[in-house]
Amino acid sequence: MYTEKVMDHFQHPRNVGEIENASGVGTVGNAKCGDIMRIYLDIDENEIIRDCKFKTFGCGAAIATSSMATELVKGKNIREALEVTNKAVMEALDGLPPVKVHCSLLAEEAIHAALWDYAEKHGIKIEGLDRPKSDIHEGEEEEEEEY
Amino acid sequence: MGKLIYLDNAATTKTAPEVVEAMLPYFTEKFGNPSSVYSFASGNKDVIAAQREIIGNALGAKANEIYFTAGGSESDNWALKATAEAYQGKGNHIITSKIEHHAILHTCQYLESRGFEVTYLDVDENGLIKLDDLKAAIRPTTILISIMFANNEIGTIEPIKEIGEIAHEHKILFHTDAVQAFGQVPINVDECHIDMLSSSGHKLNGPKGIGFLYIRSGVKIRSFVHGGAQERKRRAGTENVPGIVGFGKAVERAVSSMEKRTSYERELRDYMIERISKEIPYCRLNGDPVKRLPNNVNFSFRFVEGESMLINLDLKGICASSGSACTSGSLDPSHVLLAIGLPHEIAHGSLRMTLNEEITKEDIDYVVDNLKDIVELIRSMSPLYEDFLKKQK
Predict the structure, then answer these.
(1) Domain-by-domain residue ranges, chain A?
(2) Is the CB of B151 inside 8 Å of chain A's CB atoms?
(3) Rounded to two decimals, what is the model's pTM?
(4) Which listed residue, B61, B215, B342, B367, has the most CB atoms within 10 A of its CB?
(5) d(CA B148, CA B181)
(6) Is any Cβ of chain A less than 8 angstroms from the Cβ of B307?
(7) What is the pLDDT of residues B289-303, one digit of tens each?
(8) What would the pLDDT profile of B333-390 be if each residue is shown by its tens digit?
(9) Domain A4-124: CATH architecture, name and number where available
């Protein structure tokens, strides 16, 4: 059911782990839906993403999209990273089964959440970046929130 | 692919070679329609009668109380819809449980949309219905109680005899979905006061596409498939002769091997449960430890999502199933796991492994050894596990 690329990233996920004192951390999704993604960003003074790590609780597609998303944002500046959409992640994986498209959305949201965290910590505003709509802690209180 | 260890026998089983062999002539030289007059074909009528006899005997029922269908889902649909229709003069209330198969639950929902009222009984943390709840749910308008013999996901065997007695005392019809139980545990319809029972061929090494509904003599139940006079005018359609022959053979085989086979499976099952419980931290056995199908193992692993576990097992040649949302096509995990009180994130991390008599202790060791590594690997990637470890410190 998965493409070779998805299976490759599932079996050999890139950038699994944590970054201590990360410049930005974003966690999206909730345990209720069965998908939680956390992305750590290490951003240098030129606003370039030096390193990116992830941890994901979820299905094969969730793990593969997290892995691919970290690969895609690494080395980009924060504005370019915003352009890593769920479509881009999906294309890079040669597609996902229709029921798994929401996993790729989660990857995009996780990057945005991590960038938002970075922007807040540094008191800056990133053009085109909105407050993340899904957040693990909000999810616990607002059960009705949609993802 | 090299090694294949098939641990999904609750989903379907391999058709036994002797079953296939018994079926083959009925595709070729003995292809005749049992309803035809000439002797070449009408012999097939006797063959069907013989299978009905075998199956009836296996249940302590009469041959003419066995009605062949296309499988478990049809039998469940028939039992519920036809009873509801036939007894609506008496009442419109049905009692079932929250952990039934979808063939029951979705049929009940359909009946609700047609004006029937349905009580869905809760179960305890092991998946057992509470008899007091059942008694309390009975109304003057209750026409049917439908409770599964054993649960397909967690393997819990319900107190069928006690339920049957309660139904009998209150003169309410009792149907049981025995798709997972038939061939695995002894069943006697009189002892358990069962009025209707659903079964399916492919769960006991028979072919797919064949099942039966046992209907006790005297139960008013209408035809579900209209047409010809087959199955005592209650289920039209030319008989699936090869399927019926295969089903009969499979039942014969399952009944004669039951004691030896299930005691072997039970031993393996308990060995597997013990190893997993001891060697994998933060796990939970789902289902009753004792009142349990001989071949069912079902665990939840915290901080782990089911589908990623299944894919990793598949890469090792192991076939299993999970109640996670990702394997069900919806966003919710299994209704059975939620009904036994598991929080969503733990229900997502469930794994069902159902054995058969061909599985060896070495196979179980291979599976558990791999499972340990897989759970550890997935946990190492899980943000839930990361948070849990941080809290521990």
Answers:
(1) 4-124
(2) no
(3) 0.93
(4) B215
(5) 9
(6) yes
(7) 999 999 999 999 999
(8) 899 999 999 998 899 999 999 999 999 999 999 999 999 999 999 999 999 999 999 9
(9) Alpha-Beta Complex (3.90)
